[in-house]
Amino acid sequence: MSELTWAGDQRRFRLGIDELLALQDKLDAGPAEIAGRLREGAWRVQDLQEIFRIGLIGGGLEPKKAKALIDAHIVPGRLASHVLMAWAIVANAIHGDEADPVGKPEAETEAPIGSPQPPSTETAS
What is the rounded distance in angstroms from the CA atom of residue 89 to the CA atom of residue 55? Predict the structure, then answer.
């Protein structure tokens, strides 16, 4: 999940598996291909609209509110200003967020205090 400032407010965007599948269906392209189009400047208006719409819905916004925001902000004359953020939303789904690591925190993977520890291989001097 990404929290980004967009359309005058801090908003949550999330492209989980279900959202990525919906995005693929709408754009007839996989996440890497969509990210490549954005990066290479070969994007389409629908790419921007659907990334933001589906990302906002995945982040918890009601579909009608997401559609209203898209209609108000992704408009001719301001399209290019949304490309970098659209790429960031898709890239976050592909690569993850460094601030949100996968797996258990390091402290949870260490042996609890008082647990038997393996014998030391050091020799006393």
Answer: 7
Residue type (1 letter), 3: E
What is the spatial distance between Cα 64 and Cα 22, in angstroms, rounded to a whole number?
A: 17
Query: Smallest Cα–Cα separation from 74: which of 28, 7, 4, 2?
Result: 7
The DSSP-derived string for the chain is -EEEEETTEEEEE---HHHHHHHHHHHTS-HHHHHHHHHHT---HHHHHHHHHHHHHHTT--HHHHHHHHHHHS-TTSSGGGHHHHHHHHHHHHH--TTS-SS--HHHHSPPTTS--PPP-PPP-
For the chain (125 residues), the mean pLDDT of every run of 10, in chain order, is: 78 94 96 96 96 95 96 93 94 78 52 52 58
